[in-house]
Amino acid sequence: HIASRMGNADVLDVLIMARASIDVQDGKGRGPLLDAVTFRYNRVAQTLISNGASILDMHDVDMSHENQASFSVTLRSPSSYVPSKTKDSLMKYLWLPQNRAMVDAVAYGLAKAPWQLTLLAAADIINFIDADGSSPNVILTSLFQRIETSDLRHWDQSLKIREERTMMYVQVNRHKLSYRLESNVVEGPDLADLQRLYKTKDSPFNPPNEHIEHFLNALLPQTCAPGSRKAFTNVATFKCRMSGIHNNFGLMMCIALHRYNQLFKTMACQALVDHWWHHHWVMVGSFLRNSLQIANIILYSLIIILLRFANVEAPSGAFFAISWVIFVFWAWDVLWH
């Protein structure tokens, strides 16, 4: 406790080597990690997290009135360091602009204790990915756990992994094309082999799990493009430590669009988008919205033709009614958008 509060990382290393407990608390219930984060001792915080200190202790950091005001301004600013979509963050104090060095230290600490990522909210993961500029792949690498191919051959283990609905993707090989551009080619396990392996048991590939089957089929690409000579082989498969990642579209897109990330630029990312697109009525809504815009164009054109070319003396009430219909459609379109 004293070593953490004084920021003496060397003494802390000696104590940890001597197997000193890192879960001790003072009379106010404060732990060593809370002290390290409060006083901004980056190396101490990294060491504590690397050795298993609970990351959730940081959400109890007392924010001064000045810091609270700074944080509220940060959330309102469109060009801020903290995206507004992170309102559900468990560690708001960590994302203050002056804590960027601490963010990097915590990220490296979590790289050695990646299981703690399961304790965080999606908003915290988004903040790590956005904020981790000096070590952009630390959290991304820690967020995914490699699954050995042998684990997928055991029915119980494979079913558990699938029922957790975690993101599973396959390793990407980069290929040079003739016009000097790089293409990301996905290689994955053959789904037909898994179907044959589990055909005699209650399989997720059979009803009533048709929606899950569609999602998993898209998530594990199995066929080559027409005319392609590339043979698909079994390579590394990973799963996200945060369950249900495909249900958090913001987090998935944040990972996919990260400038340093090449992991999600695969067919698996497109499978997630396709799943979200079909299951949230986005395609139907897009069709209805386009139809509404076409109706607006037709009504506008009709009025222009009647007034300019047809020389029709229509009652003012008719044009008034049509104008109100157009206005309602326009307002609906704006609110929908």
| Poorly predicted regions | 64-86, 163-191, 200-209, 215-225, 228-235
**Strand portion:** 5-15%
Q: Look at the structure and give the mean pLDDT.
A: 64
Largest sheet: 3 strands, antiparallel
> How many beta-strand segments?
5
Elements, N to C (H/E): HHHHHHHHEHHEEEHHEHHHH
- Overall spatial form: elongated
Strand order across the biggest sheet? 1-5-2
Radius of gyration, CA atoms, in whole angstroms? 27 Å
Q: Helices and strands: which structural class?
A: mainly alpha
> What number of domains?
3
Short description:
The protein has about 325 residues and is mainly alpha-helical.
Description:
- The chain has about 325 residues and is mainly α.
- The chain has three domains: about 1-135, Alpha Horseshoe (Serine Threonine Protein Phosphatase 5, Tetratricopeptide repeat), CATH 1.25.40; about 145-280, no CATH class; about 285-335.
- About 50% of the residues lie in helices and about 5% in strands.
- It has 16 helices and five strands.
- It has helices at about 1-5, 10-15, 30-40, 40-50, 65-75, 100-110, 120-130, 140-145, 150, 155-165, 190-195, 210-220, 250-255, 265-280, 280-310, 315-335, and strands spanning about 145, 170, 170-175, 180-185, 235-240.
- The strands form two sheets. A three-stranded antiparallel β-sheet has the order 1-5-2.
- The longest helix is centred in the C-terminal third of the chain and has 27 residues, at about 280-310.
- The protein is elongated.
- The two termini are about 55 Å apart.
- Keywords: ANK repeat, Membrane, Transmembrane, Transmembrane helix.
- It comes from Noctiluca scintillans.
- InterPro entries: Ankyrin_rpt, Ankyrin_rpt-contain_sf.
- This is ANK_REP_REGION domain-containing protein.
